[in-house]
Design goal:
- This protein has a domain at 32-111.
- It has helices at 2-26, 32-35, 46-54, and strands at 62-67, 81-86, 92-97, 107-111.
- 32% of the residues lie in helices and 19% in strands.
- It has three helices and four strands, in the order H-H-H-E-E-E-E.
- A four-stranded antiparallel sheet has the order 1-2-3-4, with helices on one face.
- By secondary structure, it is α+β, with helices and mostly antiparallel strands.
């Protein structure tokens, strides 16, 4: 009997690892380059333009965006977009735009561009 208890105790850590590892992975967020894999889209988007206008963003004469890997386009309610704006084509500012959300929650930024995602 004590031999069975000993074997059960030895199996428990393995069971905990199998249970806890998926929970650990669920808490990991993908990198920005995984979340916005590209390529850059440089044509204007009415939805993203509306978000930028609503938040009085200026300096977007040069404009490019990347949909997130779960988005199906600028009006997808799940969609968010990495947007890079530049007034001169050299100095870029980053935003995360969500055109399908309410105006007060549809834009994050401005922030410096991501080191692993070069501008277009």
């Amino acid at each position: 009997m004590s031999d069975q208890v000993h074997k059960a105790a030895m199996r428990t850590p393995g069971a905990l690892v199998l249970f806890a590892f998926p929970l650990f992975l669920a808490g990991c967020e993908p990198s920005v380059s995984d979340r916005f894999p590209g390529p850059w889209i440089e044509e204007r988007s009415a939805g993203i333009d509306r978000v930028l206008d609503t938040h009085n963003v200026t300096g977007c004469e040069h404009f490019a965006y990347r949909p997130s890997n779960i988005s199906n386009g600028p009006l997808d309610p799940r969609g968010d977009f990495l947007v890079y704006c530049s007034a001169d084509g050299s100095n870029w500012t980053g935003y995360i735009a969500r055109p399908a959300l309410a105006a007060n929650s549809s834009l994050e930024g401005p922030f410096e561009i991501y080191a692993d995602i070069a501008p277009p």
